Amino acid sequence: MKIGFVGCGNISGIYLQNIGNMFKNIEVAGICDLVREKAEKQAETYGIKKIYKDMYELFADPEVDIVLNITRPYEHYGVTKAALLAGKHVYSEKPLGINMEEGRELVALAEEKGLYLGGAPDTFMGAGIQTARRLIDEGVIGKIVGANAHMLGRGPEGWHPDPEFFYKTGGGPMLDMGPYYTTCLVNLLGEAQSVAAYGRITFPQRVIGSQPHQGEIIDVEVDTFTTGAIRFTSGAIASLTVSFDTYAERSTFIEIYGENGSILVPDPNFFGGPVKLLVPGKGYEEVPLDPGYTANSRAIGLSDMADAIENGRFHRANYKQQLHVLEIMSAFAKSSRENAPVAIESRYERQPAVDPDKICGEYRN
Fold first, then answer.
1. In this predicted structure, what is the pLDDT of residue 249?
2. Where are the domains of the chain?
3. What is the pLDDT of residue 364?
4. Which of 88, 220, 224, 246 is in Cβ range 3.0-4.6 Å of 152 for a Cys bridge?
5. E strands of 141-295, at which residues?
6. Ranges in the chain, pLDDT < 50
7. Radius of gyration in angstroms for the set of CA atoms belonging to the chain, rounded to a whole number
8. Backbone phi and psi for residue 10, each to the nearest 5 degrees, phi listed first
């Protein structure tokens, strides 16, 4: 199936590298960007033959089967909606939208038109998190009691070439990095039931330390330190903290606690990484990863969606998961504002575990 790119920013490179190379069931139809020079640069680097003048020309191309929306977060809604209205399936970078109103509208539109809608993150499909899921599903650590997860850092303004959007509506550590952690947690623990949380803006202004905007001031509009708890339908409770305000030695961390042991889960921003198992009387011991994807396999979710379209099944990185994750993340901000727990209304059901031999074309890492 042929993929049309809307957006040629930082993340586009790994998609262009993997599509048609790692995943043989998808190929690039063409690309576009509001800044044409970005599209031209990527076209030259990756040998792309077609550059569209804008996304509407891309939508009108009958060769495009799926639109890949890798614009900035606050643009996801508008691009995805326009693509769905044009009759195209859509796979979007995270998040689905910047609030639940946007997310619900996009889901309703896709369902009304009978189109596939899905998106990032797809790191949960890598061998790291899939191995942890198998251990949990097989009852190796017994019934799950709870989990602890955090992503701590000082923000992207020191290295990112255009970091302002991270601190505007639609940004912040929760909507930027939270999708990796919440998507991992629901894939391991299942449907979320409620959230109780607090958040704050620690530094009202940030100074850009990277070129080409070094020295410019960013006014912060979103919480940059958020912490709280997610109660799952199973009864498990997970604490989650995300921050652009902190220094920390263990900056990324997920630990799952069961009645009979615990599991250290790899950084959900990646596809591989070590899985460690703790059982009574022993310290943590590394578990061999199940066969699967360990390298940077971004676009595995897109490849799986293309396979699902062709074979009439539901895909793993699907819109129901995206909407559930968006609602969980939105509930953190709402709970903090209202100083009260927030119920999660969307329903969620995990899809089958990944079989790397049966999806994603001919290639297996």
1. 84
2. 2-119, 124-287
3. 42
4. 246
5. 144-152, 192-200, 205-207, 217-219, 225-232, 237-243, 252-258, 261-265, 275-278, 285-287
6. 362-365
7. 20
8. -55, -40
The token pair that represents 147 in the structure block:
């989990």
Positive or negative, the CA dihedral 268, 122, 109, 53 is positive
Q: What is the rounded distance in angstroms from the CA atom of residue 158 to the CA atom of residue 9?
A: 18
Q: Does the 2-119 domain belong in CATH 3.40.50.300?
A: no
Distance in angstroms (rounded) separating the CA atoms of residues 204 and 118:
34
Is there a contact between 226 and 245 (Cβ–Cβ < 8 Å)?
no
124-287, which class in CATH? alpha beta
**How crowded is the C-beta side of 257, counted as CA atoms within 13 Å?**
10
Task: Render pLDDT for 271-321 as a digit per residue (tens, 0 to 9).
Answer: 999 999 999 988 899 999 999 999 999 999 999 999 999 999 999 999 999
C-alpha 188/C-alpha 186 separation (Å) is: 5
Residues contacting 324, CB < 8 A, separation 6+: 186, 191, 192, 344, 346, 347, 348
**From CA 364, how far away is CA 269, in angstroms rounded?**
20
- Please give the Cα distance from 281 to 355 (Å, whole number): 33
Q: State CA 44 to chain mean position distance.
A: 28
- Whether the CA torsion 150, 152, 155, 160 is positive or negative: it is negative
Return the pLDDT at 360: 58
CA angle 4, 324, 9 (to 5 degrees): 30
pLDDT tens-digit readout, 315-341: 999 999 999 999 999 999 999 999 999
Model-level pTM? 0.96
Return the amino acid letter for 361.
Answer: G
Strand partners, 227: 198, 241
